[in-house]
Each structure stands twice: as C-alpha cells, then as structure tokens.
Design goal:
Blueprint: H1 3-9, H2 18-41, H3 43-46, E1 50-51, E2 54-55, H4 56-74, H5 87-98, H6 106-132, H7 136-162, H8 172-191, H9 197-210, H10 214-229, H11 237-257, H12 259-265, H13 274-280, H14 282-296, H15 307-315, H16 326-358, H17 363-382, H18 392-417
Antiparallel strand pairs: 1-2
C-alpha cells in the first residue's frame, strides 16, 4: 500500500487535492526526521561552525523549526479528537509564547521559545503522520539508532585524539544527554529480550562513563534500573534486581578503574580539581541564589521568556548563561502559572507514555512506548540541575520519539478496522 493510499484510507471525505498535498507532506516529514535525528547527532561539530552571527547548531534549530511548523499546519486534516488529551502541553506553550510580550530579553527568549515549540510541534506532527503511515514507526526507530551510533563514533574518535572527557567535537555533558534517548531505546529492547540490546546498552553506558560526565553516568544508571522496575509484578522482580546490580557494577567499575572519572567523583580538599567541583555544585548554588530572589519579584507570571538566562549572563559573565535548572528557569520566566502548567504537562505526558506502553498491541509499539517513557523520565530528572529545554538536539528527537509512541495504539486500532487492499 502506498503512502497516498494510506492517507486516502484515513478518511473518505478528503478533497481531491488533499492526496497530492499530503504526498508532499509525507516526503517533507521524512526530511524532518533525518534532519532532527542525524542533524542532532552532528550538533556537537555544528556548534563549532560559525556562519556570520549564527552557528551551525542555530541553523539546525531554525531548519527543524520551519519544517515542523509547516507540517503542523499541513497535517491539520489528519488530526483527531484524541489530541484533546494534549491540552496541558498546548496551554503551557501558549503561555510561554505570551510571556515574550513582557520579556526584557527578547532575543534570548525567542531562542528558548523556538526550542520548546520544536519539541511540541515535533510531537504533534510525528503523532499525526505515524498514525496513518505505518512504516514511519520502524523508520523513526532506525533513525534513532543510527543517530546514536553516529554520535558515539564521533565522540569515540575525539577521545582517541584528545583523551577521556574531551570536548573537541562534543561537550562531554551534552554528548551524554544526547545519548539518553538512544540508550532508552536499547534498554527497552533489553526489557523485551531483543538480541544484542543489552550489549548495546552497556556500550553506550560505557561511552558515557568515558566522557567523564557524572550527571550523564548517574542518569544512565537510573534509566537502566527503571527499565527493569517499571510495571513489574512482585514475582518478576528478580530480573529487575539483576538490572540494579548490573547498573551498580558498571558505575562502580567505571569509577574504580577510570582514574579521571574517579577523580571527578572523589575530589580531595585543596586539590587542583576542587575548582571544577565548585563550578559543578557550589557554582550552581551561587547561580540559584541570584535567580530565586529575582523570580520572587514576579512570582505569578514571571519576568518573561529568556529573562533567567539574561540575568545569569549579566551576573556571572564567566559562566554559560543558564540558570542550571529548567524548573527554576520556568518559574523565573513564566511564574507559578507557567511552572504549574509545565509540571502538569510533563506528568500528563509520562502517564500517556506509560499507558501507550502498557496497552501496546505489538512488540514495536511496546518498545516505542517504554523508550519514550524512559527518555522523558530521564529528561525530567535532568531538568533539576541541567538546561535540557534549550538543547534542540535533545528536545527534537525526544519529541519525535514520544509522538511516534503515542500514535501507535490508535494506529493499531485503525489498521485493524481497515480492509486490506
């Protein structure tokens, strides 16, 4: 069955020009998938490319945004009533855009809004197209795997050139965060006893450990445990215990045998690395001690999109201008109204991902559901001390993964009712 036939079968009331328009849209959607996944795998090197006043990574963000926004409009005829369940996400997005009107940092705020809308539109668009074009599900999974392998190989080559924890092509923390959705995919495969998924998971976890990213290693270990604990009956917790033991063994082994990593976890007072520890912990506390009082000056509606980043950049010029906590940034920029909408959106998405996984009708749908649940859980936990919401190379692939996973239960039901052609 062709893409056009599938789209026609989705509804009998399509206009004559609709099929032709959606053949084009389906092709553009494949371009979006390639750009979001493979482009994000090259986000590290692209950040070193400067084209005038904009970086290669900035161009990647703009390209993904334009494609996703255009497809959101083009796919309007194939929306369905179940999109109403995503109202909290749409409400928070509307509030974020509205906050630009009272922001003192329009340029920075627009960058924040751009990345967030990329996540939301990617989620909606992938949900719509994956609902009516069946082969997009395995194609999305293949691109996720390919992009993870590309990033791991690039970082591995940079380690051979510059040593452990290198920042030559990828920043070590950003590399670790990019790999988490791919790790979630392989962990979901391990849960389903898919061949080689465990070894792929261990390989990615090992690369994250060699990147010397403490945050990334800790989160990878948490995901390894979660993938075995979630949804388990008590009588089946033995395998989950194996997962916990394996995670502990990998982390403990990495810390014990990799000297640079051990130094980053166990820094003696007065050592040369003490300043690094201060930048990681005390540095965050210093930033938060400035951002929190500023947020309390306008606690209900916030100071506008991008205001937190602008404040940090002005107060701490030596630090990358981020509040180092997405939840605090949302509170500062969008107030309690925005923070409540954001928390409701995240919790609601987590529940939808879990429901999609638990009620999946085929192995691929189950794997997509669990991978999206793990990926979103990891991102939500990282947001406590990281700036995930401004990283398009994390948010765009994650949005596409979640949207594809949320589409699978409805797609399965639709195809089951549709006669073969």
């Amino acid at each position: 069955m062709t893409v056009g036939a599938v789209l026609v079968g989705a509804s009998s009331s399509r206009k004559p020009g609709y099929l032709r328009a959606h053949r084009t849209s389906a092709a553009i959607y494949q371009v979006l998938l390639g750009l979001a996944f493979l482009g994000s795998a090259l986000a590290g090197p692209l950040s070193h490319v400067q084209l005038g006043s904009i970086s290669g990574q900035g161009l990647l963000t703009i390209g993904i945004a334009l494609l996703s926004w255009g497809l959101l409009i083009a796919s309007w005829p194939i929306r369905d009533r179940t999109e109403g369940s995503l109202r909290p996400l749409a409400a928070f997005t509307g509030w974020v855009v509205l906050s630009l009107f009272w922001s003192p940092a329009i340029t920075t705020g627009a960058q924040n809004v751009l990345v967030w809308t990329v996540f939301v539109t990617s989620l909606f668009v992938s949900r719509r197209f994956s609902s009516v074009v069946p082969w997009l599900r395995p194609w999305t999974a293949k691109l996720l795997v390919t992009s993870t392998v590309v990033a791991v190989l690039l970082y591995g080559l940079s380690m051979l050139w510059s040593g452990l924890g290198t920042n030559v092509l990828w920043g070590n923390r950003t590399f670790a965060m990019f790999c988490l959705p791919g790790l979630a995919w392989f962990l979901a495969g391990w849960r389903q006893r898919q061949p080689n998924s465990l070894w792929a998971s261990v390989g990615i976890l090992t690369m994250i450990a060699l990147s010397l990213s403490r945050t990334g290693l800790a989160m990878a270990a948490v995901l390894l445990v979660l993938c075995q604990v979630l949804g388990r009956a008590r009588r089946r917790l033995v395998r989950a215990a194996v997962g916990v033991a394996l995670a502990g063994a990998v982390v403990a082994g990495a810390v014990h045998f990799v000297a640079p990593l051990r130094e980053r976890f166990t820094i003696e007072s007065g050592s040369d690395e003490e300043s690094d520890l201060n930048a990681y912990s005390s540095g965050r506390l210093a930033v938060w001690s400035v951002v929190v009082p500023s947020a309390l000056e306008s606690p209900w509606v916030g100071k506008g999109a991008g205001a937190g980043r602008a404040l940090v950049a002005e107060t701490f010029p030596e630090v990358l201008g981020h509040p180092h906590s997405d939840y605090l940034a949302v509170f500062h920029d969008n107030g309690l109204v925005g923070l409540c909408l954001f928390l409701v959106s995240i919790v609601h998405l987590l529940r939808m991902c879990r429901r999609g996984w638990m009620h999946a009708r085929d192995p691929l749908a189950a794997r997509l559901g669990l991978a999206s649940l793990l990926g979103l859980s990891g991102a939500a936990m990282l947001m406590v001390i990281e700036n995930v919401l401004v990283m398009v190379f994390v948010m765009a692939p994650l949005g596409l993964l979640i949207g594809t996973a949320l589409a699978t239960p409805r797609q399965a039901a639709t195809l089951a009712r549709r006669p073969a052609s």
